[in-house]
Amino acid sequence: MASETTIEQALPRKHYLNASYGVKSWLLTTDHKRIALLYLMTVTVFFLLGGAFAVMVRLELLTPAGDLMDSETYNKMFTMHGVMMVFFFLIPAIPAVLGNFLIPIMVGARDLAFPRINLLSWYVFVLGGTFAFGAMLAGGVDTGWTFYTPYSTTYANTYVIATAFGAFFAGFSSILTGLNFIVTIHKMRAPGLTWFRLPLFVWAHYATSVIQVLGTPVIAIAIVLLAVERVFRIGIFDPALGGDPVLFQHLFWFYSHPAVYIMILPSMGVISELICCFSRKKVFGYHFIAFSSVGIALLGFLVWGHHMFVSGQSVFAGMIFSVLSMLVAIPSAVKVFNWTATMYRGSISYQAPMLYAMGFLGLFTIGGLTGLFLATLAVDVHLHDTYFIIAHFHYIMVGGTIMGYLGGIHYWWPKISGRLYPDMWARFSALVIFVGFNLTFFPQFVLGYMGMPRRYHAYPEEFQVLNVMSSAGASILGVGYLIPLVYLLWSLRYGQPAGPNPWGAKGLEWLTPSPPPTFNFDETPEVTEEAYEYQKDYEKQRGKEAPVG
Amino acid sequence: MILQSQLPLFPEQASSIARQVDYLYFFLVGISAILSVGIFSTVFYFALRYRRKSEDEIPKPIHGSTLLEITWSVTPLVVTMILFVWGAALYYRMTNAPPNAMQINVVGKQWMWKIQHPTGRREINELHVPVGQPVKLNMISEDVIHSFYIPAFRVKQDVLPGPEYSSVWFEATRTGAYHLFCTEYCGTKHSGMIGKVVVMEPADFEQWLSGVPTGETMEQAGERLFVQYNCNTCHNTSSGARGPLLDGLFGSTVKLTGGGTAVMNEGYVRESILRPAVKIVAGYRPVMPTFQGQISEEAILQLMAYIKSLKAPEGGARKGGEK
């Protein structure tokens, strides 16, 4: 903590949390910060639900025989784990919680461009969640989160349409959020805040929003076609009626591959903030990181076919998608190298958010490199739909996105709540999560190359040792996720007041009190410097040490 | 064999392609190890070397380096392009069966693999093949999408319920029994849709193949079905036949009513049986009834074997068809 803030500080007297009271003041709020908290509570519930399904999956896989539950139940478990985590946690988590809270503040605005649409997006999201959760209560769904036809349209006897419409509504909520961010970033930047003075968190969210607005309608179309086919059998996907079952895969992945970037780009934005703050350094290669976000967003639309290398897609198409997928690796690598270089000759502290950021670097690097295996055609043929895929995308989506999300939550928690949490516990949980995560998912790479297929209720005996390791890791990971829940809630009541800038960080959000007032700033700030600008502090300090320049 | 030690870490290599896939895999593992160890140790080194010494320490700002940016953009580009070319070349080999490959037919259904050899011998959830002989599987599904996967051979191919047949080929290099998995989620008993591939010495395979009297080869069964389903009442040599004569037609290009052409391949034959109105050979009327729901995928494959075996008639004049 910077020395100025060690003196006991009091919370500001009036802020967004105590500006008004009562359920109505929350459910009808148009304050982006309150909406962010509504999202925070909602996605946490979905995360715990998705986690509970994962627990069931890992318990079942302790033994080779399918003995804990029957096959249909198991299939529902992994399906509902996927649906909950992807559509109701990973996609909204960082944009709708941290993005919602921070983007208006970071650009020096009073709120998002369309505060009511922002509230609407939360209600649409809750509607989607209600559909999906209702379908689960009614009996669940067993198609896998990918809803592949013709299984989903013709053969599944479970609540396919209700669940798919849950994802459909969640998608509209995502479009509304993306639209709001795009307009806000274009039109509501404070005086002096040029595009290249924006924090990289904002650039990452801008790129994410573009994907949300352009990509999500395609999944909406795919879901509607799926429902129409399931109900009326009009022959879009059913080959017996002249349809093409692989067409669904094209439509599905045209959204769902970019959706991976909806999950990871905001996390990358968080990591840029964390590494700069805890290295007290201007980011290395600002423009390269900013444009690599945009590059990932655009290239991400052109690689969906790498999910179909063994689907009967033509060899030529396979090659095109392979080479394009390889290209996406480059902006991702550029980011990792720049973050690492930012730490060079920095002043690095090991507070909890930085541990999460370093964990992210490790896990995302492994996730990214194993992506190369899957973009390599001949190797993907062997690895497709095995546990290698499972391990790879968990390294990206859990190792990447959740590490970034938790890092961000820990970094901005003092801003959000106005209070500090116990840093020792936070560091401990970061370590537990890192260890638990690797123990859970690293063995799955080996399982995958051994040939164990995904979505298997029972498996041959020789895979058991690795599966037991994975389940053991999952139990550690589960504990790691529960610890922050406890101390963050604890801090709401017992945490020390944080003060406006407990980390000594740069950025407009640290100039306003914690928690911020309802309209963020008492007067509109004027921006005169680039992001992460420690130059003046450096000169001031040098001046103190050696008065003669 | 299937059961190895308690903690196996690497799959067996039992096909001609397996070793080559593994070389590429090791190359990838090597690159990943170098890069990740490089990045991790740099991060750790920086974190220790430049740890914050005092609370008010502000390091000297550094803005970036275009030279470094170019270096670490171009290097991954080169590496990934090597991976792409290597992977694509091998993929090309994996997807093009040698012409002398022995064809075996596979029908996937919830939740079993049904296999028929050209001699007529059938098996379920087992596939017997000779060692050292390229084998091409011609595959179709009766219901949902399945995927045919033999880890020890490093081959996998989705099996679709149409419109096209899919195929996969391999050349087994070691005798033994290997896992066969369905790798496309196909419903309740997906993880039960497994079996084994038995690779035998050619002599043993011949013996196995003739071990059980099958009655009729696929071709003979097809010939019987051709009569049973009354195909021959229209597809015959009489001058006023209502359907094109199929003899020698397989593999040729036919002109279609309404313009355009189609290659008479497996997919077209199957489509013509199930949805005959879609592509009509020029000069014929759309009078053929559909056999959808009346004929099994196995029967279609037998008909296919028979139709393929039909030689072009002497003199060769026919309506619509051209070689």
List the helices and strands and how they pair.
The complex is a heterodimer of chains A (549) and B (323).
Chain A: H1 23-27, H2 32-60, H3 71-106, H4 115-138, H5 151-155, H6 160-187, H7 200-232, H8 245-279, H9 286-299, H10 315-343, H11 352-375, H12 377-383, H13 387-417, H14 423-450, H15 464-494, H16 535-545
Helix pairs in contact in A: 2-3, 2-4, 2-15, 3-4, 3-6, 3-7, 3-8, 3-13, 4-6, 6-7, 7-8, 7-9, 8-10, 8-11, 8-13, 9-10, 10-11, 11-13, 11-14, 13-14, 14-15
Chain B: H1 18-49, H2 66-95, E1 102-109, E2 112-116, E3 122-124, E4 126-130, E5 134-141, E6 146-150, E7 155-159, E8 166-171, E9 176-182, E10 194-200, H3 202-209, H4 218-228, E11 253-255, E12 261-263, H5 266-274, H6 297-309, E13 321-322
Parallel strand pairs in B: 1-5, 4-10
Antiparallel strand pairs in B: 1-2, 2-3, 5-8, 6-7, 6-9, 9-10, 11-12, 11-13
Helix pairs in contact in B: 1-2, 4-6
What is shown here, in short?
Chain A has 549 residues and is an all-alpha fold.
Q: Percent helix among the residues of chain A?
A: 55-70%
CATH topology of chain A: Cytochrome C Oxidase, Chain A
State the distance separating the first and last CA atoms of chain A. 28 Å
CATH C-level label of chain A: Mainly Alpha
What is the string of SSEs of chain B from the N terminus onward?
HHEEEEEEEEEEHHEEHHE
Oligomer: heterodimer
Instruction: Kindly state the percentage of residues in helix of chain B.
Output: 25-40%
- CATH superfamily label of the largest domain in chain B: Cupredoxins -  blue copper proteins
Q: Total domains of chain B, how many?
A: 2
Describe this structure in words.
The complex is a heterodimer of chains A (549) and B (323). With 549 residues, chain A is mainly α. Chain A has a single domain (34-538), classed as Cytochrome C Oxidase, Chain A, CATH 1.20.210. Chain A is built from 16 helices and no strands. Chain A has helices at residues 23-27, 32-60, 71-106, 115-138, 151-155, 160-187, 200-232, 245-279, 286-299, 315-343, 352-375, 377-383, 387-417, 423-450, 464-494, 535-545. With 323 residues, chain B is of the alpha+beta class. Chain B has two domains: 9-47 and 97-215, Cupredoxins -  blue copper proteins (Immunoglobulin-like); 219-322, Cytochrome c-like domain (Cytochrome Bc1 Complex, Chain D, domain 2, Orthogonal Bundle), CATH 1.10.760. Helices cover 32% and strands 21% of the residues of chain B. In chain B, the strands form three sheets. Chain B has a five-stranded mixed beta sheet with strand order 3-2-1-5-8, with helices on one face. Chain B has a five-stranded mixed beta sheet with strand order 4-10-9-6-7. A three-stranded antiparallel beta sheet of chain B has the order 12-11-13, with no helix packed on it. Chain B starts with 17 loop residues before the first helix and ends with a strand.
